[in-house]
Amino acid sequence: MLRAAVSIASNIAEGAARGTKAEFKKFLAIAQGSAAELETQVIIAGRLSFPIETEKFLSELDEISRMIVD
């Protein structure tokens, strides 16, 4: 989960540093994929009864995903 979370921010930063809109869009798409991966992991962790605040995580992740798309 940590790796997927770090990947979101890392891909946004890398895309921004590339210098072209096309490259930035490409890395935003990769970041969105990492967000989807993290969402899946949070859902699975919740179903396996890990002590996490599933709804809070999913709500914050939804907000992050919307920021990536906009």
What can you see in these coordinates?
The chain has 70 residues and is mainly alpha-helical. The protein has a single domain (2-69), classed as 23S rRNA-intervening sequence (de novo design (two linked rop proteins)). The chain has 3 helices and no strands. The chain has helices at 2-18, 21-47, 54-69. Helix 1 (2-18) packs antiparallel against helix 2 (21-47) and helix 2 packs antiparallel against helix 3 (54-69).
Instruction: Output the radius of gyration.
Output: 13 Å
Count the beta strands: 0
How many angstroms does the end-to-end distance come to? 24 Å
Beta-strand content: under 5%
Key structural traits:
70 residues; 0% strand; mainly alpha
Q: What order do the helices and strands come in, and which of them pair?
A:
Layout: H1 2-18, H2 21-47, H3 54-69
Helix pairs in contact: 1-2, 2-3
